[in-house]
Amino acid sequence: MKNLKIEIKWAVIFSLMSLLWMLLEKVTGLHGRYIDYHIYLTNLFAIPAIIVMVLALKDKKKNFYDGRITYLQGLVSGIIISVMIAVISPLTQWITTYVITPEYFPNVIKRSVELGYYNTIAEAEANFNYLNYVKQGAIGGLIMGTVTTAIAMIFIYTRNRKSS
User: Fold this and answer.
1) Model-level pTM greater than 0.85?
2) tRNA processing as a keyword (predicted)?
3) What DSSP line would sit under 127-144, residue for residue?
4) E strands along 31-162, which residues?
5) Would you place residue 160 in the very low, low, confident or very high pLDDT band (cuts 50, 70, 90)?
6) Do residues 64 and 10 make contact, with C-beta atoms less than 8 angstroms apart?
7) What is the C-alpha separation between 153 and 150, in angstroms, rounded?
8) What pLDDT digit, counting tens, does each position of 76-110 carry?
9) DSSP 51
10) Contact 78/56 with Cβ under 8 angstroms?
11) How far apart are CA 92 and CA 141, in angstroms?
């Protein structure tokens, strides 16, 4: 467990940041009045998500591997963080759905039918619901976390330098 202390810390930080992002979306009206812009602006979440993952990997490099980390060590650490985030995601989705913004699903269902994305309320409800978002969040978190780690580690890993 001591070996995973940094991964646990950053998975929790990421999850809290996700909740703060959802609160920000709600406060700015993206779950209500400005829901038409939600589909575009919610993608900006990638910016803090990438930053948090990079900070986590740098933390692991500095404080666990004493400043020298291989690509594989970083990749494994990032995948572990991603798995932990995926495990926590049903809780963060529950908090988002039932505490932070319970009006989001009814609003997005109604608006998606009005705009013709779905023909009926039932079709929209099949997409916009807690269980579907839990699945999407867990799978998406695993995939995006792994891809982000794979790319970030290109820049973070310690290159072997020949001594002169």
Assistant:
1) yes
2) no
3) HSSHHHHHHHHHHHHHHH
4) none
5) confident
6) no
7) 6
8) 999 999 999 999 999 999 999 999 999 999 999 99
9) H
10) yes
11) 12
Instruction: Specify the amino acid at residue 162.
Output: K
Do the beta carbons of residue 144 and residue 81 sit within 8 Å? Answer: no
How many CB atoms within 10 Å of residue 94? 13
Judged by DSSP in three states, 120 sits in: coil
User: What is the C-alpha separation between 60 and 129, in angstroms, rounded?
Assistant: 36
Residue 130 has pLDDT above 70, yes or no: yes
Q: Give CA angle at 14 (62, 131), nearest 5°.
A: 145
pLDDT tens digit sequence for 20-68: 999 999 999 999 999 999 999 999 999 999 999 999 999 999 999 999 9
Q: Which amino acid is at 117?
A: Y
Per the CB < 8 A criterion, the answer to whether 69 and 156 are in contact is: yes
CA-angle at 30, arms to 28 and 32, nearest 5°: 105
Closest Cα to residue 14, out of 142, 147, 158? 142
Domain residue spans of the chain: 2-156
Encoded tokens for 3: 């070996």
End-to-end CA distance of the chain, in Å? Answer: 40
SS3 164: coil
Tokens of 24: 């920000």
